Amino acid sequence: MDKYLVLENGNVYKGKAFGAEGDATGELVFTTGMVGYTETLTDPSYYGQIIMHTFPEIGNYGIMYDDMESDGVAAAGYVVGNYCLTPSNFRKDIDLDAFMKEKGVIGLYGVDTRALTAAIRSAGVMNAAIVSDPEKVDFGKLRSFKIQNAVSSVSSKTEEIYEPETAKFTVALYDYGAKKNIIRTLLAHNCRVISVPSDTPVQRIKDIDPDGIMLSNGPGNPAE
């Protein structure tokens, strides 16, 4: 099925739909990574954004659930040059298209993502929409689109404790959209990790009395 990527400057790029059905609006961003698309898709830092890969072929080795950086996908949409229909990997759990359907991610393929990347690098940050009918796009709404409540949308709602085999230190981790690899790395360094929601008051951290405090990565404008 035909699908269109519409930029806020009026440019329209025709491609094909894959993943979940529907339309998506978000801030268009790009990544130049040749591998690691599972980690990219599941990184909470991309909340509200449409991810675009410059590497032309994505999905070659499928999706491995163990490689996910969160339990879901926070990105608004996904744009690739082409995606692999027959991934080959002994660790593969599911292919990219099926994973996107499972997680409700709207995708578009069949566009020149490198040319698109050059365009947005020249023009600056732009909002975009993945739609079935570009004639119905409200450009006023598209230009004024802003990602809202990014951190609160991806932060954990409760405290979680992660124990290494041998704990030498305790780290309080403020979850602003933390990737699982942050926790894995801390555990590998014998740190007991207490992950707390983004709005946790300072007094609670004092009560924990950790050896260290870490502020995680996360989505949104740092100025906010």
From TrEMBL:
Coiled coil: none
InterPro entries named in the record: CarbamoylP_synth_ssu_N, CarbP_synth_ssu_N_sf, Class_I_gatase-like, GATASE
Catalytic activity: L-glutamine + H2O = L-glutamate + NH4(+)
Keyword ATP-binding: yes
Top-level taxon in the UniProt lineage: Bacteria
Pathway recorded for this protein: Amino-acid biosynthesis; L-arginine biosynthesis; carbamoyl phosphate from bicarbonate: step 1/1; Pyrimidine metabolism; UMP biosynthesis via de novo pathway; (S)-dihydroorotate from bicarbonate: step 1/3
Gene3D superfamilies assigned to the protein according to its UniProt record, in alphabetical order: 3.40.50.880, Carbamoyl-phosphate synthase small subunit, N-terminal domain (3.50.30.20)
GO biological process terms held by the UniProt record: pyrimidine nucleotide biosynthetic process
E.C. number: 6.3.5.5
NCBIfam families: PRK12838.1
Protein name, entry field: carbamoyl-phosphate synthase (glutamine-hydrolyzing)
